[in-house]
Amino acid sequence: MLADALRCAPPGTVALVDGRRTISYGALPALIEREIDWLRESGAERHAMLADNGVPWALADLALHVGKLLSVPLPGSFTSAQVAHALDDAGIDALLTDDEARARELLPGWRLDGSSPVSGLHRFRRQLDLASRAIAPAGTRKITYTSGSTSNPKGVCLSGPALEAIAESVAGATGELAIERHLCILPLATLLENVAGLYAPLLRGATCVVPPSSVTGMSYGGLDAARLLGTLSREQPNSLILVPELLQVLVVAAECGWQPPASLQFVAVGGAKVSRELLERADAAGIPVHEGYGLSECASVVCLNTPASRRAGTVGRPLPHVRVRVDAAGQVHVAGNTMLGYLGDPPRAPHDEIATGDLGVFDADGYLQLHGRMGNRFITGFGRNVSPEWVECEISQRLGGRPVLVHGEARPYVVALVGASAQEVPDAVVAAAIAAANAVLPNYAQVRHWARAPGPFTPADGTLTANGRLRRQQIHSRLGTLLDDLYRTELAS
Q1: Whose CB has fewer CB within 10 Å in the chain, the N or C terminal residue?
Q2: 403, 474 Cβ separation under 8 angstroms
Q3: What is the pTM assigned to this prediction?
Q4: CA atoms within 13 A on the CB side of 298
């Protein structure tokens, strides 16, 4: 389907551009075929890719997809240990990269095996005992490694048809809009941007703008807001995909006088819960934001608000390629377009239902509202169930998106740890944010005491996942004493 769409698009239209290289739809199919030939000539069976956003990444990924070669995109935010785990776990025998120096540092024992004349990416090879590596389910086209809550990510095996079904649904959901230019801000190694930000626009014959992070300022280690805003103003995209923290940056900038591009028609936001207040502020600032929901195990997007079907405070209605239900315990289940299994586990049927672990409810009109994760929900000492994401979101969005962890399992009240320094958010600002959040929370979910974590929560120190979710187990393990002290303070007073 994707390969056919690329051939049918107007040949003079720009398909890919990154500021250094521009490729038209007329030239793209032949370039993809040449890249496929180069990939196959090495005899490698499984390829990983560790590269920045850009035309090289997009060309190599499209070649791997169209050529039906198994691939593993590696986020640049992965630690050395996570990269090594993914390479060994997936039995990767070839790695494609745009950073030869980093590859040599990460890959002792691998050898440089040339560079692509098409994408320009370098290929590193190693010898493997193929009989000992994990068997991927039949039909696996892409293995995406979730950053999850543990140090070793799990490999989610996805088929080509599952990935294209998502792209087709997303393209159809925005079909009424004249989206001719999509700007990729999130790393293309992120499944959401890969499928909804690359494949979906290409299905529509739109231009994918894929500048590197040095241009966009996008980094999970520290965003350069000025570069991000400058890129948006310069590129004038029709659509974007953002995580809540990036939406917060755009909203605050607009409230301070920055003008969102008049070209913007659709801004999808997902990856974590978004507060209703932030969505309302985005609307007031002229940012056409639409919240969605998805997970790697379902090949990305499951539900999405659209211009024709939008309800604030929900993640939208299910897209046509999936079936979604909520069970008696409030857990969301998805069927119809799911993974082939985790690498190393028994394969599963791609249409079988998955229990997502997310808590939610459908309203009378079929819009899904999410409340948090089953595994994260705690029960206070007074027997009240609390989804921490709900409380954290109310506080975090009043702190400019800085991460906050709340706790209250078997305790008489809820406490919070703020993952930001006093220079970023002074004590008075934190206290005011918590007071404002408490004003809209029921008494059993209100935060009674708070403290600062010893340092900011970041992906680099293992307290956040690559897309900004809290690694709760790690934080509780490291800072359990600090949390306990918040209760001892009151007992001693």
Answers
A1: C
A2: no
A3: 0.84
A4: 25
